[in-house]
Amino acid sequence: MTVYNEGKTIKKEIESFLNQTRVPDEIIILDSLSKDNTVQIIKSFKSKIIKIIEKKSDMGTARNIAIVKAKNEIILVTDGGCILDKNWVSEMMKPFEDNKADVVGGIFFPLAKNVFDKSQGAVICKSLEEIDEKKFMPSSRSLGFKKKVWKDVDGYPKHEIGGEDTRFVLNIIEKGYKITITKKAIVYWRMRSLKSFIRQFYLYAKGEVRAGNLAFPRMRRVLIASIIFPIYFLSLFFTLLFFRVFFLFLFFVPVLYFIYQGIKVSRKVNDIRGFYYGFLFSFLKRFMYFSGIWAEILSRKKDMYRNENY
Asked: Which of 13, 135, 253, 289 has CB 3.0 to 4.6 Å from 205, enough for a Cys bridge?
């Protein structure tokens, strides 16, 4: 796991590691020189299996450094700010031991205390019933792999603003490895403030472009939607000037879509306030994501991610 300024959450996260039904052989945490009390809290745990590395690093490089230090062949990865279900390690390990899997993807759900968090989680995360194991793209919040796979894809790409763990998974798929999805390995993911949510998806999108993720077949739908995004707004402007009837049609079709999303979220969270939050989060997620893609495409930064030599 990599962390930076996780003083408010790190204690409960480490407790969730140590309280596993199958405790991991070692817990390696790379701290990117946090400015709060993250390191002090980690060191307050006297467990011999916890190893901390203090080094200023981007996220991809930090993950690679921690993996190099790992003694075992099977690596399980999660993120700072997450809480592990008590059976996470044991459920992640089963496919490795039973099916001789090379890569295992767990799932992640929102760690939600109120309607705001629940609604945000409903927009970001699929429910257990909605997850299609053949199409589900695992995240490094809940991922396991053998070191040989990590070496074969040259490790995690160098991270600057985002997209490195998506690129890592896409590289694994491109190499022909099968990813076994286990729905019983659950990580609970803390939701963000509205400001952080907006920034998160904007930077995710910029990272996707800079990492070259949109060139992969698994990202084709995202690429097509990204192309449609500016065309839609140009069409909206043009029809407003010359074809008002078509303008109303173009305007209200996406509005109806986001109303539908609001209804879905309100049902999921069982609260009428979920309609407003569902509409808001669904709109902001897509608008900021596609805005980030085009901001990065139109920027002068053309350098792609580089893999360090690990």
From this structure: 289
Q: pLDDT (tens digit, 9 = 90+) per residue, 155-204?
A: 998 766 677 889 999 999 999 999 999 999 999 999 999 999 999 999 98
Query: Residue 201 is encoded by which pair of tokens?
Result: 């998806």
User: 103, 179 in Cβ contact below 8 A?
Assistant: yes
Q: Give the position of tokens 């996220």.
A: 59
Pair of tokens at residue 263? 């209804």
Q: DSSP string covering 278-307, please? A: HHHHHHHHHHHHHHHHHHHHHSS--PPP--
pLDDT tens-digit series, residues 243-285: 888 889 999 999 999 999 999 999 999 999 999 999 999 999 9
Q: Is 308 helix (H, G, I), strand (E, B) or coil?
A: coil
Counting as low any pLDDT under 70, the low residues of the chain are: 159-161, 300-310
Q: How far apart are CA 267 and CA 51, in angstroms?
A: 44
Burial of 295 per CB tally in 10 Å (0-12, 13-18, 19+): middle
Global pTM?
Answer: 0.86
Which residue blocks in the chain are alpha helix, DSSP H? Answer: 10-18, 38-44, 59-69, 88-98, 115-124, 147-152, 164-174, 194-211, 220-242, 244-269, 273-298
Which of these, 141, 108, 167, lies nearest to 1 by C-alpha position?
A: 141
Report the distance separating Cα 220 and Cα 228, nearest Å: 13
What CATH class has 2-192?
alpha beta
**Domain parsing of the chain, residue ranges:** 2-192, 215-298
3-state DSSP call for residue 26? coil
CA distance 38 to 170: 32
